[in-house]
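Hi R.,

As promised, here are both runs. First protein below:
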Amino acid sequence: MELVDSWSRGRAYDRPVATQAERRATTRAAIIEAASAEFAAAGSPDVALDVIAERAGVTKGSIQYHFANRAGLLGEVATWIFAELERRVAALGDDVTPREYLRVILAEQAGPTGRVLFTIGDELARSGTLQPFDPYPYLCERLDELGLGGPVSVTAAATVQFGRHLAFGLVDADGIEGMLDDLLGAGGS
């Protein structure tokens, strides 16, 4: 950002002026955050763009400018949700255990956010406009990066399935510890 020389323009103050790129990035972030919040409140990504635009403080046209189509917005929201999840995992520190990592993932999937992720995945898979959103390879990759590969990585597929049950209310959120016992019974800690 640069400061505007307000004295030369007859104003009595200096103010920072955002560049066009900074304004675009700010608008894009506001849209993604607003969409994520609206999707979570609704429990699904079936929210009108007008509602998202109002929450983000932008026009519907602005959403259409920043995202080629609804699938593009959904993909960005899913990516943003996973980035938030990564921040929660990072807060656990470097000594994260497989159990702690999977607990964070399952806890995230237990509420409306998890339902949104799964319905986004289903919608993207049906639309064919983007690759299907499949958290299983992502989880395996992250577990390997954390040095938690081997038998624990194969539990990622089960974690996704358990997550679906949690997200859609088929299993109570209090059952997460039992799920972890089932998932890690084959050799994880």
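And here is the second one, sequence first, then its structure tokens:
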Amino acid sequence: MPTVLTVMTVMTATSSLAGAQLKKPPKTITLSGCIETDGKTPDRFMLTDTKAGMKYHLTGKDFREYLGRPIQVDGGVVVKGLKISGGLQPSANVAAQAGAIDPSRAVVQSATSESGTGTPVDVQDFRVKAIRQAAGSCR
């Protein structure tokens, strides 16, 4: 019986080692852009990535000294829980008139108006690990 116990111990050690190797460190992302204050909350700072055009709320450092200057930041997007936002498509007015409104007019109305819920665009949080000055200027 000692042989069986030895085989099980080796198998357990091998499987725990394989599980440890599967966990990869989070990927570091580099963003470039200019630091600006958030219009709604002046004590929060935002960066619009010059490559992708995406906006991020910055966390993890003090950004006051970089305000209005071009920078590069290294870090990662903060993953939050699932958030579903949206509204009625077409708008509630067009949906209520179904059948009583000309179909071509309904298409134009739904294409040119926003949903009636007024949900804001979600800006992701970006946890900064390193900041460095970048070349260029902010407009």
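A quick note on the second one: The chain is about 25% helix and 25% strand. Let me know what you think.

Best,
J.
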